[in-house]
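Structure ticket #2291
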Amino acid sequence: MPVDFTPRERSAFDDMSGISILRPRMLPASVSERTGTIEFQYSFRRDGRDVGSLGFLGTEELVETDGRRERIYTLDLSPGKVVEDILRFKQGIGNADRDAEFLQGLAQGLANAFAGQTSNVDDLRYVVVAHADDLARVGISVPDGSARLTDGSIVLADVFVPAH
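Resolution: structure written out below.
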């Protein structure tokens, strides 16, 4: 059965594996050529113990639609090293899902870790992407029905958190 990380207050939890994805630390990245760059630092826990971690870059953008403000966070699992780290984590926890299935389930968990927020004044959207070339390099084909962005990135998961 594929991983299914459901939102909790400050995390996402998979019943089958007993793993929680904690809401990450979000820090300004030291990459100077991209504005709005954020470093996301996730921890994975099982039974109160750390079982893994994952760090990668993303961006934040503020948009206004129909008079409502929305902050869009893009969590970018490219370059391929991040996808390789995810597959090593999969192996380390003994998960038997197909690689593409696990990647998509974990990506949804990364987004779902934010879903339980209740103190945000703006609408929030978290979108997890990976570049199709990076997926192909590790032998993962683009999941069926995935949205493809103009830069060749594939949307693996997303979550919308309305303003509270």
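Closing remark: The chain has three helices and nine strands.
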